[in-house]
TrEMBL record:
PANTHER family: DNA POLYMERASE EPSILON SUBUNIT 2, DNA POLYMERASE EPSILON SUBUNIT B. One of its GO terms (biological process) is DNA-templated DNA replication. GO terms for molecular function: DNA binding; DNA-directed DNA polymerase activity. InterPro entries: POLE2 (IPR016266). GO terms for cellular component: epsilon DNA polymerase complex. This is DNA-directed DNA polymerase epsilon, subunit B. Its EC number is 2.7.7.7. Keywords: DNA-directed DNA polymerase, Nucleotidyltransferase, Transferase. It is an enzyme of class 2 (transferase).
Length: 62
């Protein structure tokens, strides 16, 4: 069984680009872009596969 442990591993996927953040569902496919890290606040999104929801978060610039 230990030969296949890597098949069950979930890795983080980090997405960031220069475009504004958005979130939409199109024909049952949930799509979101957390937006850019550059600007007034550092924003990210956490996706929960069990519920199919993405939660937006941000850390304000100090």
């Amino acid at each position: 069984m230990s030969d296949f442990v890597h098949c069950l591993t979930l890795c983080q996927l980090i997405l960031a680009d220069k475009y504004d953040r958005f979130e939409l569902t199109y024909e049952g496919c949930h799509v979101f872009n957390p937006g850019s890290f550059k600007g007034n606040a550092y924003g990210w999104a956490t996706y929960y596969p069990a519920t199919g929801r993405a939660e937006r978060s941000e850390l304000p610039n100090a």
